[in-house]
Design brief:
This protein is mostly beta strands. It is about 5% helix and about 60% strand. It has 5 helices and 40 strands. The strands form 8 sheets. The chain has a 22-stranded antiparallel β-barrel. A 5-stranded mixed β-sheet has the order 3-8-9-6-7.
């Protein structure tokens, strides 16, 4: 769905992120081993400056039968998904409707966030779950190494690198309690040509109905890699990925409808096509164990075309259809990442790097409606907005991690970013009212530039062989998007420049992790984040006719919370128990809404999990996840920006169970999600009586055979 035509929808939604999953599989004996919890980043796969990094391994994703990134992460205690009218975004530590610009999502270290902050939904559906080796979750920051937009945290999705000969096929089936069926068919292979050359591919097609009638998603993934190893000191990886889908939906339900039958069709109709090609080139050079140089270049493009989009609005007491057919978004990102790491002594290193990003986003909004009152009144109105938004960034960063002795180490780093913006906006209104034509055109161009820097320092104390404690201070930034540099005056209806500053955040964090008695894992994080110069707005930048808006730096927010993860393993890891809870208090601390809760934020999210290996081939799991209630977006006064009429979103608990069976080269996984068919909402706008239902009870079955 493109963008709902109603009054203003605003403010900060949210939730958080973290959990503890690290699956491991014994391939030699086809023995299933249960998940291991990674409770610290003291691991060679991560920079030591990053604490309490959480890992989900690809084998765990497959064992639990997930079909999407959302399913893989939404049961995690510190992760949530927010929907502010266009789709769901990953939220960490309470970013709300800024989650798409304040949580960075990367694939192999390359950002996939969209440039258009207002309409840009991070393309999570373009990620092939069966091509993932692991997911690294870094809650709360990462500005020095990862740059702009990391206040909530960073998620880095690492794809598989298969160089040895392999061929496998898999089929997945899933359905709901109304017997809707859908599925995926996957072919995965790799060929080692010689010691210097290898090739791998993963091709997967899908056709799935949704929980709500009228929803369907079908398409395919293509993921390929070519590996070139000219010598022992270097390697080159060339990747090509392509995603294509056609999505059909039926829009929102009213509260009466969703309570009566959440599966029924909504009041709208939309069909959208998505095409996303990507090319990557990564070169790695190693000089003994002292120096490592990484050079990565990439190009990615996403096009979303709304083939059909019908919603409704009310004019003069008459409800009539609104058409947005032909609307589209396009997002193109070209980047270069150069990073070197020098290990100057045991457990001490220095990182220096440069990043270049050229980001271009295009938006085409077409809105058409007709009003016909026989022998009285008629309107034929088409509004077209064309936007071309560009941002070019150059960044330098350095980070040093030094171990003074076996007890104390400290890491610190600095990043500088220089950005250039350009926005071209064209608005055309064609109205025929009682056969009288009224046309209006507006054009506006703006150029802006900005400087930002980030800083962090993290002392770490290792108080025992298994336990460590760290303190972290981080200063980071969220720079404006090109669209936010354009305002529209209410009286003159003319565009003008907003002259915004970047949002600045300061995070203070205390973390401790340990392994007690060789079976009890413990991870605790306390954090406080204060953000100033938050970008807010008056008016309605999403409307078209007669609209005005003003972006400005005024708001200040604070987020304080704790994240606790526990795990216990018994019987040589045959039985594993997990408990996780995240608490967050997120409020607006300055401005017209001072003291109000940030909408769409559950204060508490908790999860409990049990995994048991019945024998070397057969394992089972049970997961429970609780979401506390939260406020929805309510109403925003267009003149003052004051929030009101925020309604509670009810709390709920979801239960999942599943089984996995391994026999020689055959793998079978099956289970039930939302076992008790609990009703909940993935989107709620009580003011406009619009809701989307979460998936009810659903089933999955996956068969995989490795030849």
């Amino acid at each position: 769905m493109y963008k709902k035509i109603t009054l203003i929808k605003f403010f900060t939604l949210f939730n958080f992120l973290l959990i503890d999953i690290n699956a491991q599989e014994n391939n030699e004996e086809t023995k299933v081993k249960l998940n291991e919890v990674v409770v610290s980043a003291n691991n060679q796969e991560f920079d030591n400056s990053l604490r309490n990094v959480i890992v989900i391994n690809g084998s765990d994703l497959q064992k639990k039968g997930f079909n999407s990134i959302e399913q893989a992460l939404e049961r995690t205690a510190e992760i949530n998904f927010v929907n502010f009218g266009l789709g769901r975004n990953i939220d960490m530590r309470g970013q709300g409707d800024k989650s798409n610009v304040a949580v960075k999502v990367m694939i192999d270290g390359k950002s996939i966030n969209m440039l258009d902050n207002s309409h840009g939904i991070t393309p999570l559906n373009s990620i092939n779950l069966d091509n993932i080796e692991r997911i690294e979750i870094i809650p709360g920051g990462g500005s020095v190494l990862y740059g702009n937009g990391t206040r909530g945290g960073v998620i880095n999705i690492i794809t598989k690198k298969q160089k040895e000969n392999l061929f496998s096929m898999a089929i997945k089936g899933n359905g709901y309690n109304q017997h809707k069926l859908g599925g995926n068919l996957e072919v995965n292979g790799a060929k080692k040509i010689n010691e210097n050359l290898a090739f791998s591919f993963n091709i997967e097609g899908f056709n799935q109905d949704g929980y709500q009638d009228g929803y369907n998603e079908k398409g395919y993934f293509i993921n390929t890699k070519t590996y070139i190893n000219p010598n022992e000191q270097s390697d080159l990886i060339l990747g090509y990925n392509y995603f294509k889908s056609k999505n059909t939906g039926s829009g929102y339900l009213t509260k009466t409808q969703i309570q009566d039958n959440p599966k029924q069709k909504g009041n709208g109709e939309n069909i959208a096509s998505i095409n996303r090609p990507e090319i990557t080139l990564d070169y790695h050079y190693y000089l003994d164990d002292a120096l490592e140089i990484d050079l990565g270049t990439f190009w990615q493009n996403q096009k979303i075309n709304y083939l059909k989009d019908i919603s409704t609005m009310t004019v003069m007491g008459i409800t009539l259809p609104v058409y947005q057919n032909g609307s589209s978004f396009e997002d193109t990102l070209t980047g270069i990442n150069l990073k070197s790491r020098y290990n100057y002594k045991d457990n001490s290193y220095f990182i220096f790097g440069y990043e270049f990003a050229n980001h271009d986003a295009k938006r085409k909004s077409i809105i058409h409606y007709d009003v016909n009152i026989p022998s009285s009144f008629s309107i034929n109105h088409t509004m077209t907005t064309l936007m071309d938004m560009k941002k070019q960034s150059h960044s330098l960063f350095a980070l040093d991690s030094h171990e003074f002795n076996n007890i104390f180490s400290i890491s610190s780093g600095l990043r500088y970013e220089r950005s250039f913006y350009k926005t071209d906006r064209n608005y055309i209104s064609k109205m025929l009212m009682n056969r009288i034509s009224k046309d209006n055109k507006e054009t506006f161009n703006t150029d802006n530039q900005g400087n930002n820097f980030a800083f962090e320092i993290t002392p770490n104390f290792k108080y025992s062989n298994t336990g460590s404690l760290y303190l972290k201070y981080e200063r980071g930034f969220i720079s404006p998007s090109p669209a936010q540099f354009v305002n529209k005056d209410q009286k003159t209806q003319k565009y003008y420049s907003s002259n915004l500053d970047s949002e600045i955040f300061n995070t203070f964090e205390l973390g401790i992790n340990d392994l007690w008695w060789d079976f009890y894992g413990f991870n605790l994080t306390l954090f406080y984040t204060l953000s100033k110069d938050e970008i807010s707005y008056l008016g309605n930048p999403h409307s078209e006719a007669g609209a005005f808006w003003k972006y400005y730096n005024i708001d200040q927010t604070h987020r304080i919370g704790t994240e606790l993860n526990l795990d216990q393993s018994f019987l040589d890891d045959e039985l594993i128990l997990r408990q996780s809870i995240a608490y967050i208090d997120a409020k607006i601390s300055k401005g017209i809404n001072k003291g109000k809760r940030i909408p769409y934020v559950s204060k508490i999210k908790a999860s409990v999990g049990i995994e048991y290996a019945i024998n070397s081939n057969f394992s089972t799991f049970l997961d429970l996840t609780y979401y506390s209630r939260a406020k929805d977006g309510g109403m925003i006064d267009e003149k003052t920006g004051k929030m009101s009429k925020n309604t509670w979103i009810k709390d709920y608990t979801l239960t999942d169970i599943g089984l996995s069976y391994y026999y020689k080269k055959l793998q079978i996984s099956s289970g039930i999600r939302n076992l008790f068919n609990k009703q909940y909402y993935t989107y709620q706008d009580s003011l406009n009586d619009e809701y989307l239902a979460g998936s009810g009870r659903n089933y999955y079955l996956e068969l995989k055979y490795v030849f």
